[in-house]
Design goal:
The structure holds two protein chains of two kinds.
Chain A: H1 3-18, H2 21-42, E1 51-56, H3 66-75, E2 77-78, E3 81-82, E4 84-88, H4 92-101, E5 106-109, H5 114-119, E6 127-130, H6 135-171, H7 174-179, H8 184-195, H9 212-243, H10 245-251, H11 256-286, H12 294-318, H13 321-338, H14 353-358, H15 360-372, H16 378-408
Parallel strand pairs in A: 1-4, 1-5
Antiparallel strand pairs in A: 2-3, 5-6
Helix pairs in contact in A: 1-11, 2-9, 2-11, 6-8, 9-11, 9-12, 9-13, 9-15, 11-12, 12-13, 12-15, 12-16, 15-16
Chain B: E1 2-13, E2 16-27, E3 31-35, H1 42-51, E4 57-62, E5 65-66, E6 75-78, H2 90-101, H3 106-114, H4 128-140, E7 146-150, H5 158-173, E8 177-182, H6 185-191, E9 194-199, E10 202-208, H7 209-213, E11 220-227, H8 231-237, E12 241-243, E13 247-252, H9 257-267, E14 271-278, H10 282-290
Parallel strand pairs in B: 3-8, 3-9, 6-7, 7-8
Antiparallel strand pairs in B: 1-2, 1-4, 4-5, 9-10, 11-13, 11-14, 12-13
The chains are: A mainly alpha, B alpha/beta.
Bound molecules: adenosine-5'-triphosphate and magnesium ion.
Chain lengths: 411, 295
């Protein structure tokens, strides 16, 4: 190995790339684009939603009316943000029209005798309308609205039960209680349990809250490996073949390993630089970033070498800049999703999960996330890291073999 | 001592045989030219010697040792096409190759001033002549004993060409062995101590220029220009006749060639503008040996 030759190749590559506009796009603009995109879509996440709710009801003069329900709804809030923003409509038709127009998310219609039914202890009806055109929005809106009414219904049941319990002593005879050897208290508790068999008590636990920004920063690192890293090294070598400079390098005393180590080192420096730029940018613009630990950087290093080997292999197999670019894109676009780079493994279909676990870049990202986002100890992911390292070594050797074969046939 | 020794070298590109058993011996310290038309196999031969291009059969020795990555350091190669990196400056290019060949750093500045190169211009901004000079400077970085140049003056204007030829002669004076491939006979004639004529992947004849010319005996060459008629009939009498757009060259080995040629042309209705009797050139030798024109 000739240190001076390697240094020469690294310095030359860095100078070239810093003067190459296309490369600068991949190194800076592309990552910043992603970070900006992710940050502005998912950044600051977890803001409580507000549902625009249309209501239709008539004015009644009973003790309890639909208007009381609406007022209750208006007063519920999470972290000071109201959940429902209600808007009254004169009739059902006008409300439905508004849903269709998208000015409200859902419509609640209270029939004319709603208050009267409640007060007289009869069944009261409520009609709900939802916009189903966006399934995700529908899920959230219907969940919240139905959840509210389920809770409201429970309260009403409780109220009615309390009234019944007040009078229970009056209509259950002492003889009966004696006969079954049961107290009035027992009967009351059976009645309560009958109306509400299950009491769910919600207790809040502060789990590891994964910030979406941090998740998407790991995505951005993955994207740099899927595109820029492979392309910089693959296209870089092919350009040297096309321009004829590689022939000269090959004829020089520098060996194939010298050349490839130089290329790998320069690509690594460029990619690390672009990752640091992305991390810093996120810190400045979104106030949050990821600072990988030493083990995290180790995973990043291995993943980048894997990515470079793959880039070299593709370039040497196709021997054309165009095909290399096309193939890298063809391969990386689906992997962006299927290897869990930009979406969490949890929401991938089951057939895609092996890709996350066995495609080294998917696995590297998964392990990086376990380490940096979920704060798992390194021992828990060491198996994965060894796996990635082993595959990377094999790929690197394969890329050197292929490179040597191509160099031999340079004519 | 032989600087370069090539024995029975064969090389094919697929089915096409580019070198069909080439033998060559270049003495230490001489300027040796390979003269041949397009496609003769000159570049192929030089690339085997200087760029490690693979070959099928034969033997190549550099100063008595088989060609290897180690012996490659004895050879400086100036290819036809630029070997500099477009986006790097002249100085950066030289610096890179100095690192690659582990050449002394000072050589970078020495060569820049020696060849009068603009150190901070990017390679892509250089003229063809300057690019060739940069190629030359790069090949000299590690002070090779043998300098191999492929068509060094192609594409250069007259002053750059003259400058280059002067440089080459100076290299020989400093003790370097020089191998030049060219299809310009003037270049071969002016520079070389010895030359070889190559055609279709074969060496036709090697020797000193005078010796090659003497192959033609004391023949003279008759050059006639004008509006010429009856050339085809004339060719039947003198098969080795070179025809150009408005002139012909005829080798004469008998005393009355001149009168035969002139009478024939005039009786066929030609209008002769000029008649010259010349010493044979390398081109005539080439024609004699291969039956072909050089260009
Ligand atoms: N890489 C290649 N693949 C296939 N054929 C080739 C290749 N390089 C050269 N040839 C063929 O080999 C023959 C010799 O080519 P070469 O370049 O050595 O000739 P040359 O004497 O240098 O010609 P020129 O004066 O045009 O430079 C030519 O017919 C050429 O077409
Ligand atoms: Mg050539």
């Amino acid at each position: 190995m000739k240190a001076r030759a390697i240094k020469g190749i690294v310095v030359k590559d860095l100078k070239e790339i810093s003067r190459e506009k296309v490369a600068l796009f991949w190194v800076f603009v592309f990552p910043l684009m992603w970070v900006t995109l992710f940050g502005s879509i998912w950044g600051g996440g977890g803001e409580p939603i507000t549902i625009d709710l249309g209501v239709v009801y008539s004015d009644e003069d009973t003790e309890f009316t639909a208007q009381d329900v609406v007022e209750i709804m208006e007063n519920i809030s999470i972290e000071n943000a109201p959940i429902f923003n209600t808007k009254r409509f004169d009739n059902e038709t006008a409300g439905v029209k508004s849903i269709k127009k998208g000015t409200i998310n859902a419509l609640v219609v209270f029939p004319n005798d709603f208050g009267k039914s409640v007060v007289t202890g009869k069944q009261a009806k409520i009609y709900l309308y939802f916009d189903k055109s966006d399934p995700q929005e529908y899920q959230i809106v219907s969940g919240v609205v139905k959840g509210f009414f389920a809770e409201f219904e429970k309260e009403m049941k409780k109220k009615r039960m309390e009234i019944q319990l007040q009078y229970a002593g009056l209509y259950i005879s002492e003889d009966v209680m004696k006969m079954y050897n049961i107290s009035l208290e027992d009967i009351k508790s059976y009645m309560v349990a009958g109306s509400e068999p299950l009491v769910i008590e919600e207790k809040e636990v502060e789990g590891t809250k994964v910030s979406p920004i941090k998740f998407y920063i790991t995505s951005f690192i993955g994207i740099q490996f899927l595109f820029a890293t492979m392309l910089i090294i693959g296209v870089g070598i092919l350009e040297e073949i096309e321009k004829g400079t590689l022939k000269r390098v090959v004829a020089s005393p520098a060996t194939s390993w010298d050349f490839l180590i130089g290329k790998i080192a320069s690509t690594f420096i460029i990619v690390m630089f672009s990752i640091l730029v992305g991390l810093t940018y996120s810190r400045i613009v979104f106030g949050e970033t990821l600072v990988p630990s030493l083990a995290g950087w180790l995973i990043i290093l291995i993943a980048s070498v894997f990515s470079m080997s793959l880039g070299i292999i593709i370039a040497m197999a196709t021997r054309s800049i165009r095909s290399t670019t096309a193939l890298v894109n063809l391969l990386s676009m689906p992997l962006l999703f299927l290897a869990g780079v930009v979406i969490p493994e949890a929401i991938l279909p089951s057939w895609a999960k092996p890709i996350v676990n066995y495609f080294p870049l998917g696995r590297a990202l998964k392990d990086l996330r376990l380490l940096e986002l979920y704060h798992k100890p390194f021992v828990e992911i060491v198996g994965g890291v060894i796996y990635i390292l082993a595959v990377t070594v094999v790929m690197l050797l394969a890329s050197v073999v292929l490179y040597n074969r191509v160099v031999k046939t340079l004519e | 001592m032989l600087a370069l020794e090539v024995k029975n070298l064969r090389k094919s590109y697929g089915d096409f045989q580019a070198l069909k058993g080439v033998d060559l011996e270049v003495e230490d310290g001489e300027i040796f030219a390979i003269l041949g038309p397009n496609g003769a196999g000159k570049t192929t031969l030089l690339r085997i010697l200087a760029e490690g291009l693979g070959y099928d059969e034969g033997e190549v020795n550099v100063f008595g040792e088989p060609l290897s990555k180690k012996s490659a350091r004895h050879i400086g190669y100036v290819p036809q096409e630029s070997i500099s990196y477009d986006l790097l400056t002249v100085k950066e290019n030289l610096g890179f190759y100095a690192d690659l060949y582990d050449a002394p750093r000072e050589e970078v500045d020495n060569l820049i001033s020696k060849f009068d190169l603009p150190p901070s211009s990017k390679a892509k901004e250089l003229s063809g002549g300057l690019k060739r000079r940069l190629n030359l400077a790069i090949s000299l970085l590690y002070d090779p004993k043998v300098l191999i140049l492929d068509e060094p003056s192609t594409g250069l204007d007259v002053p750059s060409r003259k400058q280059l030829w002067e440089d080459i002669i100076k290299f020989r004076e400093s003790g370097k062995t020089i191998l030049i491939a060219t299809h310009y006979m003037e270049e071969a004639e002016l520079l070389s101590d010895r030359l070889t004529i190559m055609d279709s992947g074969r060496i036709i004849r090697t020797g000193k220029i005078e010796a090659l010319k003497s192959l033609l005996g004391d023949r003279t060459v008759i050059h006639v220009s004008g509006i010429l008629r009856g050339v085809d009939n004339l060719r039947k009498m003198f098969p080795r006749l070179i025809e150009r757009r408005d002139s012909i060259r005829v080798h004469s080995d008998v005393d009355n060639t001149l009168s035969i040629v002139v009478e024939h042309l005039i009786s066929s209705g030609s209008r002769i503008r000029e008649i010259r009797v010349e010493e044979p050139t390398l081109e005539d030798v080439f024609l004699e040996l291969t039956g072909k024109k050089l260009n």
